[in-house]
Specification:
The structure is a homodimer of 107-residue chains. By secondary structure, the first copy, chain A, is an alpha+beta fold. Chain A is 56% helix and 13% strand. In chain A, strands 1-3-2 form a three-stranded antiparallel β-sheet. In chain A, strand 2 (59-64) and strand 3 form a beta hairpin. The termini of chain A are far apart. At the A-B interface, helix 1, helix 2, helix 5 and helix 6 of A face helix 1, helix 2, helix 5 and helix 6 of B. The first copy, chain A, binds a DNA duplex (30 and 30 nucleotides) through residues 11, 15, 17, 31-33, 41-51, 63, 65-68.
DNA sequence: TTCTCATATGAAATTTGTTTCATATTTCAT
DNA sequence: ATGAAATATGAAACAAATTTCATATGAGAA
């Protein structure tokens, strides 16, 4: 049996701050301070989390003066989130725990 | 900005036991005790984790005598894992942290 | 250079998630 | 009914991930 070890990859989608970052970058690249402002999280927290995302190639960075501009690897992220969305809409409202069906209501 | 709250969904892919369960069920449905045996994890641990997976509709259950047969929701899971695989093979070996590039070597 | 802004980093504190342990529940066989 | 097998459940113990805090680094402006 092939033991898949994708844990660390998926960790990037399983916390609020990181999904916040991902969501924030949906509309285009942003600098760290812009992300910080958008999320209302602490700078160093955002920074730590950006590192994880970057290390898994979910984000890309480029330097621009003193700023670092982060952008989303949409090729992976978009279909990933689309898949979940599809899953949610297909579940018939049976996922009490994961909160996705609640999300449904919000939209 | 729409705040995505998919955390809990992705949590199901970001730990070893649950990915182990998912992997075990790739080849077809299994009872709890069969999963326990296959993974070498404790029964109650497997049981707890099965609950999470089921609640997010990643797994389905059906009763069969005293047994409960769990099966994989392949429609969601397969393309999800395929996506990650594609991401990995496209990353050019740059994801030191997430361990996916190491997986590459294993195969 | 020195100052300031933007970001990163390490370690401690905190929060969250996972596993274990003991026990309960369900179902079937006797 | 009673016992045994299969699974579930709750709470405590444990482990791991996240956040915060203090500080460091780097880059440009004065």
């Amino acid at each position: 049996m092939k033991q898949i070890s994708y844990e660390n990859f998926f960790t990037n989608f399983s916390n609020k701050t990181r999904l916040g970052i991902i969501t924030a970058l949906m509309d285009g690249p942003l600098s760290v301070s812009e992300i910080v402002e958008k999320l209302g999280e602490e700078q160093s927290n955002v920074s730590h989390n950006l590192e994880h995302l970057r290390k898994c190639s979910i984000l890309n960075v480029k330097k621009e003066g003193k700023k670092r501009i982060y952008s989303l690897n949409k090729e992976t992220v978009e279909p990933m989130l689309e898949l979940v969305e599809k899953h949610v809409y297909g579940c018939g409202g049976s996922c009490e725990e994961c909160g996705l069906c609640n999300l449904k209501e919000e939209r």
